[in-house]
Amino acid sequence: MPAQPLPLNEHEKVRLTVEPQEGQTAPNQIAPTTGTASQPSLAERIAARAHAIPQAVVNSWPVDGASQHDHYIYGTPKRPE
Length: 81
What we know:
Elements lengths: L41 H10 L3 H5 L9 H6 L7
């Protein structure tokens, strides 16, 4: 949110650049390359969440989920194999 109102008209097209103020660090700043000791990379966080899914839940997933994804996501009829 801006610190003060901006002189813009409704529906006016603008270009917005977000940068931290000088001398301040963004609280949720993402590391530019891989994870650091204080914060794992996105890939590491995704892998950790995937490994945390109980095996019983994984076993309940359909075995044709990839080939029939439209059926499971949108409810369309299953395609013939």
